[in-house]
Each structure stands twice: as C-alpha cells, then as structure tokens.
Design goal:
alpha/beta, 2 domains, 16 strands, seven-stranded mixed β-sheet, 17 helices, 47% helix, Rossmann fold, 468 residues, 17% strand
C-alpha cells in the first residue's frame, strides 16, 4: 500500500465505491493528513487489503459500495484483529450510481440475516444522510443489531461534507485511544441512556430572568447542557444555580447581543470551549411604549438594535457555525404577539418584533437546505420582568406619569396570570417537532388568526389601544 500523511499517526484506510476513484477522498485527506497515516483502496480490493494487513489494527472510512465491501469483511471471524474501527458514510450523489449502491447493500442485507447473527466486535460509526433512499433500511437494521458498539450520526443537509467525515473519524479514533468523548460523539452513541435533549448543548440569550431563564431550566430538565448569556451577571448567576439544582450544567457569559462584534466573539468562545450549540434560542429583548412622535430617535434605534439586531447577530454568528458543522440543528427566535398586532403606542416594540417575524420566515427558507430548523415564538401577555424594565417615551409635560403607567400595565399582566414557564415549554415542544411558528397563550393564537382573516379590524383596533 501507498501511505501519505503522518507516518507516526494511526493508520486510516479510505475505501471508495465505483465508479469513483481514490481522488474522491482528496478533500478528506487534506483535513486528516496531520493526524493519520492514510492509505486508499477501492471496493474490489478492500477485503484483500484487510486480510493481508499485518500491522496494528487500522481504522477504516468507506462510502457506498466500499462500505458494503468492508461490512462484508467485518462479518468474518478475526476481522477485529485487523480493524480498530469502521466509519461508513452514505454513497456518492451521482444519479447513475444510485441503483448499483442500493442493490449492493440490499444483497448484503439478504446474505447476512439479522436473526441469530453473530455480533461484530469492531466499533462501527454510521454517517447517514437523512431521507437517503439509495440505501436499504435493512442495511442499517442489520448493522444496528450486529454491531456491539455503534454510533450513528444523521446528516440533514443532503450530503456529508469532508469536514463532517474528518471530524467524525477523528472524534471516534481519539475516543477509542482514550480521550473523553465529546458531546457530539456521545449523542451519536446508540444504546446510551439519555433524556430527550441529553448530550445536547443549548444556548439561550437573555437568560438572566423571565422567558430566557425558564427556557434554560426547561432544556436542562430534558437533559441538555446550557450556555446562558445576558448583560445581567447577577441574574445569570441565579439562573446557573437553578440549572444546577435540576441536575443540569450551565456555562455563563456576559454579552450585549446588540453588539455584533461581541456576539461573534461570544460564539467563537462558546464553540471553542464547548462545541457548536445544537439549539440556539435568541430571546434577549427589551420593552418600550410611547407614541412614535414622542419617541427620540436614539431610543427607537435602541429598541431595534436589541430586539431585532440581537436576533440577527445571534443567527449570523451561530447559524454560520451550524451550517458549517453540517449535521443540522435548530434556532429559536423569540418574537411576540406584537409582531402581528399593531398598537399605536407600541410602535418601536411592534416594529422590532414584526421584523423578527419576517426575518425568521426568510431565514427559515434559507436554512432548510442545510437541515437546520427555525421556530418563531410569539408569546402573548406573559408575566415577566420586562414590564419593570420597559422604557416609556412620554411628552415632556407628562414625564412624571411613567410609574403610574407602569403600575397599570403591571396590573393588567397580573390579571392574565401566565408565567414564562409556559413559553419555555412551548419552545422545547416546538424544537422537538420543528414547528415553524408557535404563538403562546390563547390571545396570541386568536390575534394570529385575526391578523390574517381580519386585517382591517386589526388596524382599526390599533387606533384605540392606548395604555398611556
């Protein structure tokens, strides 16, 4: 065999299917050559290459027909003496080869029936393209029963990138050589007991109180580790304490979501220290009330910068990394019932939340091809700390009236008696079901329907909504 890469590293055999050539692995080799001593083979020669191998057990990465050939070899006695691990990726995407690959894998399933089959002792890692009809489900069922140690990564973006293949192999080999398993590998391990979001990392902005805090707690109860951020460090500390009390782990960061550079630095730090979050909840926001003509330009911009800019910054920084990771994920953008409810004295707030709603609709369509879901959450009247921190823009002659107005608003919210935990539960459920838009509370659903069915009525109602 011809070897390339690091001669002092573990040996990795790359096996390609037909009609590809060994050059199909060039982008993967470029990523792995510093870590591995690499050889290449085709599907026809793979079994012979493995039988003749007399060195330390090697690792194998194969695709398509190459995967079928290697799996057939692994079912033979003594295979574990020569193969230390096997990573199988779905086949190439050229339409002319689809049928041949499916036929090979289907035949393999028939030759190696599941019932009563001896286990395969070699650690097996499957990289499965979601919805790939080229590969018989029997093939995966057979491996699932016969492999005594199995990991499965489902790629939702249509193909496994060289980066995904290289990262998957490196994580598995490092772990088999004694390194702690990263969260991504733990999540791929079949048979590992876990809750719904076990071995998952969830990032929540605006987590020092209210909806953000309850969302962090809800995901922690479901098994997730949480990255929590806010400008309120004391509130973050309390959220971290509560997360620990329900058995979760929280990583706290102080960040201003309106600062694009700060959010990018935050994303860099989180991904370097904990990996790319699997779920990102852009929740941070501020309240504002006042007629437009009474609202200073600087205050109006502040609301847009935080409520819209914070969502945009979070989606850009974490969405890019989710896309590049190549295995899907989910983003939640917290909008509001106000995003489709015009109110004459909430111009800045309604505008910012309406922009979040449309931004999310557009981004959802873009991210879908990468297997990344996006949910827009639209809470109704929820009792949170936002009432206490809302700024009011009043005419100068009424500036003294701020606290009286705040008291009336607080009293109205108290009558509704709906807490942020209801929104948090809706967020968790929406992520599980990949729901695009989720109003929360009865009034949010009602107004959502009215906004589409009776738009003129909504515009008329906006003229009379005056809490001031």
């Amino acid at each position: 065999m011809h070897f390339e890469g690091n001669n002092d590293g573990p040996t990795l055999l790359l096996v390609h299917g037909h009609p590809d050539t060994e050059r199909v692995w060039d982008p993967v080799v470029a990523l792995l050559s510093d870590r591995f001593r690499i050889a290449r083979a085709d599907a026809d020669s793979a079994a012979a290459t493995l039988r003749e191998w007399d060195g330390d057990a090697l690792h194998v990465l194969a695709h398509g027909g190459g995967s079928a050939a290697v799996w057939r070899y692994l079912t033979q006695p003594g295979a574990s003496d020569r193969v230390a691990s096997f990573t199988s990726a779905s086949g190439p995407a050229h339409a002319a080869r689809h049928r041949r690959i499916a036929d090979k894998l289907g035949l393999l399933g028939k030759r190696a029936p599941v019932a009563g089959a001896d286990p395969v002792d070699v650690p097996v890692q499957l990289i499965v393209i979601a919805g790939d009809r080229r590969v018989s489900p029997r093939f995966y069922d057979d491996i699932g029963v016969r492999a005594s140690r199995l990991w499965r990564r489902d790629v939702k973006g249509g193909h496994a990138t060289p980066y995904v293949l290289a990262r998957s192999v490196t994580q598995l080999v490092d772990h088999l050589e004694g390194a702690p398993a990263p969260r991504e590998l733990l999540r791929a391990q079949i048979g590992r007991p876990r809750k719904a979001f076990g071995d998952t990392l969830v990032a929540v902005t605006g987590a020092a109180s209210g909806i953000g805090r309850e969302t962090a707690l809800a995901f922690a109860r479901e098994g997730a580790d949480v990255v929590i951020s806010d400008v309120d460090t004391a509130g973050l500390a309390e959220t971290a304490r509560l997360v620990a009390a329900v058995g979760g782990q929280a990583f706290s960061y102080t960040v201003d979501v309106a600062d694009a550079a700060a959010v990018e630095e935050f994303a860099d730090q989180v991904c370097a220290e904990h990996g790319v979050p699997d779920v990102v909840v852009n929740n941070a926001g501020v309240g504002h009330a006042g007629f437009f003509l009474d609202t200073p330009a600087q205050e109006y911009d502040r609301v847009l910068d935080i409520n819209l800019g914070g969502v945009v910054n979070g989606c850009r920084s974490f969405g890019t990394r989710l896309r590049d990771r190549g295995v899907g994920g989910h983003i939640v953008n917290v909008a509001s019932m106000a995003s489709y409810t015009p109110v004459n004295v909430m111009n800045a707030y309604c505008t910012s939340k309406a922009a979040v709603f449309m931004f999310s609709d557009c981004l959802r369509a873009e991210l879908d091809s990468h297997g990344i879901g996006l949910t827009t959450i639209c809470p109704g009247i929820i009792g949170t700390n936002i009432v206490n921190t809302t700024r009011f823009s009043l005419p100068e002659e009424r500036s003294y009236d701020t606290e009286a107005i705040r008291h009336r608003v607080r009293r109205g919210f108290a009558v509704r008696r709906v807490g942020p935990d209801k929104v948090a539960r809706a967020i968790v459920t929406a992520v599980k079901s990949n729901k695009p838009v989720r109003p929360v509370t009865t009034e949010a659903y009602f107004v959502y329907g009215a906004a589409h069915a009776l738009p003129q009525a909504m515009r008329s109602a906006a003229r009379g909504g005056n809490i001031m």
